[in-house]
Amino acid sequence: QKEVEQDPGPLSVPEGAIVSLNCTYSNSAFQYFMWYRQYSRKGPELLMYTYSSGNKEDGRFTAQVDKSSKYISLFIRDSQPSDSATYLCAMIMRTSYDKVIFGPGTSLSVIP
Amino acid sequence: SQTIHQWPATLVQPVGSPLSLECTVEGTSNPNLYWYRQAAGRGLQLLFYSVGIGQISSEVPQNLSASRPQDRQFILSSKKLLLSDSGFYLCAWTPDRARAGANVLTFGAGSRLTVL
What confidence score (pLDDT) does residue B41 get? Predict the structure, then answer.
């Protein structure tokens, strides 16, 4: 079983739709959770960062963490064509360094 | 503010040729530095990380090596490239653990390597 699982998509939605992206993980040692957005042929950029169960909101984006179920989600409200990208979930385990494990990413297209 | 530079952006190399990708971070000191590889349709695979000058750890056995000759410089190398080395290589950094935001990875723009 992979440490972090994520549906690769592709996911295609109309502009204005609510998008739900999800990841599951198997290792309860993960302490911090992040979502990165990666545009084609670019490096990933941090979207959301959280370390506790519950919801965290930032504009149109909401990150949700459920540690008991080992499940994290990213919701995008009022999706825009500029949201078209690959979304990577990432989790951190603090060892001798901050070991970051990434999901494979979900490719999202928002159609005008 | 901190910035990360990575070059070259694109590289096409024949099998058996050497490789050198370079990464530098500005605006901070003693960063933790990372090299990731991203194959098409796959997630990010950590190749190397470094917590200080001359301190390199490898996550996976491979044809590549890394060096950190200066505090804010990280180099990915190969003596002889294989076809399987093709991919998108990303350099990243995190602040020293004592600093705020210490575990947030910031990535460079990436280097796309095609081995023919």
Answer: 66
- In the three-class reduction of DSSP (H, G, I as helix; E, B as strand; rest coil), residue B83 is classed as helix
The answer to whether residues B103 and A93 touch, using CB atoms and an 8 Å cutoff, is no
A77 in contact with B at a CB cutoff of 8 Å? no
The confidence band for B3, taking pLDDT boundaries of 50, 70 and 90, is very high
Q: Cα B98–A55–A71 angle (5° rounding)? A: 85
Q: How far is A68 from chain B (nearest CA, A)?
A: 23
* CA A55 to chain CA centroid, nearest Å: 13
pLDDT lower than 50: segments of chain A: none
Distance, in angstroms, between A51 CA and closest chain B CA? 11
d(CA B46, CA B36): 4
The CATH label, of 3.50.50.60, 2.60.40.10, 3.40.50.740, 3.40.50.1220, for the domain at B3-115 is: 2.60.40.10
| Alpha-carbon span A22 to A5, nearest angstrom | 9
The span from the CA of A8 to the CA of B80, in Å, is: 33
3-state secondary structure at position B86 = coil
Pick from B3, B104, B111 the residue to mutate for testing the A interface (most A CBs within 10 Å).
Answer: B104
**Residue B6 pLDDT level (bands cut at 50, 70, 90):** very high
